[in-house]
């Protein structure tokens, strides 16, 4: 079931570049390559840019650091991969920091890309961790994309397939600069208790650029951060908040570095 497996998550999946001087990149390989590696949750941060909905990486002062293009074009890229891989299930976690309209700005991008046709609508929300369908059920239904939004989703009442994240999924702190990744429940919402949520651990290590307060990812440490010991230590440190369960989603920078999929096999009981 979706609620009992661990899936790798590409943090700022749109922010890819192989240019080492592109300090705001969080990935080195493109979206299709991330998916081909085995990533099954794509995370992205949105902003309105010249009246269009874009995926962008910004600083805390809203300075534009990396523009990943329009959300619609991004979703068209993902839709092409989904069409080529009909037996795969994919989850999105998108952030909506400006509270842009789900109905007027987000839904058109999903509809125009064709992704909306594949999006799962649960019978009711929030969904208990144990009540999510199996991957086989999602695939056979043709509704094999799950969409979470951190703000503005109104529990799916406006656009039913865009689900409010925190009543369903809790997260650990983000923008972590401590390589020991101390675990705590950072963002969540009721009415379900935390141990009945899905949960995502933000396992991406950041650095403060010249003490400017601008936090960027740290590619030099990615092979260690994405290594089996670091991932397992973080995951096992979080099980205390989830009735002993491993995380559902493990968010990473530079998904092509380290051995994240070996760690996933261990956490999923395959190794």
From TrEMBL:
Q: Which top-rank group of organisms is this from?
A: Eukaryota
Q: Name one GO biological process term.
A: lipid metabolic process
Classification via InterPro entries: PI-PLC_domain, PLC-like_Pdiesterase_TIM-brl
A GO molecular function assigned to this protein is: phosphoric diester hydrolase activity
* Pfam families per record: PI-PLC_X
For this entry, the protein name equals PLC-like phosphodiesterase
- The record lists the organism as Gloeophyllum trabeum (strain ATCC 11539 / FP-39264 / Madison 617)
